[in-house]
């Protein structure tokens, strides 16, 4: 196995993902949390988590760079680059770290003034997609806890819009009265939900309760309830994101099962799509970011 | 203090409320939970909770009737009466209880076939409202974790529609990334949210994220964020409930602060409203239901 020469990290609300990288190739992957990661998490918390996750895999004789994207430590307005701009820019932001085994470099997020919007992590996936598809112009859809629609042109993010769709779906499935009412996947229920959500998005809160009422009265969850719930929420998003997808070809970057839902919904609107795995794009983007680190002390001279 | 001669109870997802009643007057109130009340909670669980809550306030020499509405034990299709119908009907459903100190009588919920809908508890508040406002025809709005719009005519519930608005708002405020981004109440932000939610309900998930993006970029929560969040969700509901309120006078039955939000939003639409406290209506409705209990053994003969 190749020795790692740098480390990639992605932090979101749910988890911290860490990859020990040898050039462009991950040689070890780990997943942990920062204990409820927030933008206020400190650099040393992140450094400690990386050391705990990789332990003896770290070389003892030199400093490895950690390239981190997402909810990285000590954000604020300074942590964002305003669009239109390239997804990565020219420099990373070094963050102070006491441990000599690591140096920490943060990928800035992107911000948008009107309508106010922000991304922390998606810019890296977008950079990875562009690295794999040079010269690609068009629309990206990045579903997840937050889903983003991104207009790319000439290598720049021109505009984007973020929806809380995935987080809402998860809250309703896991923490609302619907938790016992929605289960089961049926493709027809999903497509029906998407159409209903697009056509009458104002009825969302009523249609959600309908799923519960059916379970109450019939004594069992309605067939395909989870598919319908997801469809209703994605449908409303698609109605709002129409300026992004109308007449376009859309590349969907996401976890395979969720990306498939968006591709299915877009197919119903006769929008051609391609899908690709978001982890692969994150790694490609982190590798691109790693190339931006200014040359430091030569290996072996850090101590 | 008058001795209680019956007990009223209301069970919802969050709590079990119990009142020791002397005729129409509450002489003691208690609040507890059924440990995650579900329609499957048993009658004996409810009986036990009442006994724990009232203890020595129960007379030792006779059986007190408990009139319970809401998520009462052992529901299912049999626990609902289909609309159109009066809110209470002619009989309660007795539930078996081993403890001789109590007899348990359940208020049936109401169901609607098209669109599928159900209420468990609201029918009692509606009955209370009608008891206080005999002959009242028109529209009721009952906000809460679930908000309901009800068309009343000639003493009957003609149709109704339930929205998950309040529960969604609470989930977003308490359990989403917005928990640190929304705080503060500003009336202007609320009205602005209502208008935005009504006009473009499909943008809900995007506008929710905007609140978070503002907090991320500015480093502090946007002014009146909680008011805007609530307004966005109520606005979408009002767009969908338009057939209920358009050209009508609306009575809003709810907890005072929430009822006030709905009244404020409806005032912005030039819809005249009156508000009344939902606990008062629940008690009036339970008293009405208590009168339906078939005469049982005379007091003192239960043992």
From TrEMBL, chains A, B:
GO BP field: D-galactonate catabolic process
GO molecular function: 2-dehydro-3-deoxygalactonokinase activity
Keyword Kinase: yes
UniProt keywords, alphabetically: Kinase, Transferase
Cross-referenced Gene3D superfamilies: 2-keto-3-deoxy-galactonokinase, C-terminal domain (3.30.420.310)
Protein name: 2-dehydro-3-deoxygalactonokinase
């Amino acid at each position: 196995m190749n020795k790692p020469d740098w480390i990639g990290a992605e932090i979101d609300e749910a988890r911290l993902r860490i990859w020990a990288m040898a050039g462009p190739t991950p040689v070890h992957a780990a997943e942990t949390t920062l204990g409820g990661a927030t933008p206020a998490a400190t650099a040393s918390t992140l450094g400690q988590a990386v050391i705990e996750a990789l332990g003896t895999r770290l070389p003892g004789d030199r400093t490895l760079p950690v390239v981190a994207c997402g909810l990285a430590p000590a954000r604020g307005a300074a942590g964002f680059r305003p669009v239109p701009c390239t997804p990565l820019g020219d420099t990373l932001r070094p963050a102070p770290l006491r441990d000599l085994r690591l140096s920490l470099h943060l990928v800035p997020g992107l911000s948008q003034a009107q309508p106010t919007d922000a991304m922390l992590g998606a810019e890296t996936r977008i950079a990875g997609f562009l690295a794999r598809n040079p010269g690609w112009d068009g629309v990206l859809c990045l579903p997840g806890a937050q889903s983003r629609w991104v207009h790319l042109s000439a290598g720049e993010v021109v505009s984007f819009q973020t929806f809380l769709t995935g987080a809402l779906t998860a809250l309703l499935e896991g923490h609302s009265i619907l938790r016992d009412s929605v289960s089961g996947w049926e493709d027809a229920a999903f497509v029906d939900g998407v159409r209903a959500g697009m056509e009458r998005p104002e009825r969302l809160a009523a249609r959600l309760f309908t799923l519960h009422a059916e379970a109450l009265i019939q004594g069992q969850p309605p067939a395909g309830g989870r598919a319908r719930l997801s469809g209703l929420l994605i449908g409303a998003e698609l109605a709002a994101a129409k300026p992004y997808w109308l007449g376009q070809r859309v590349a969907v970057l996401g976890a395979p099962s969720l990306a498939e839902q968006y591709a299915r919904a877009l197919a119903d609107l006769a929008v051609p799509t391609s899908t690709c795995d978001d982890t692969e794009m994150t790694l490609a983007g982190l590798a691109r970011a790693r190339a931006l680190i200014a040359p430091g002390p030569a290996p072996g001279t850090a101590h």
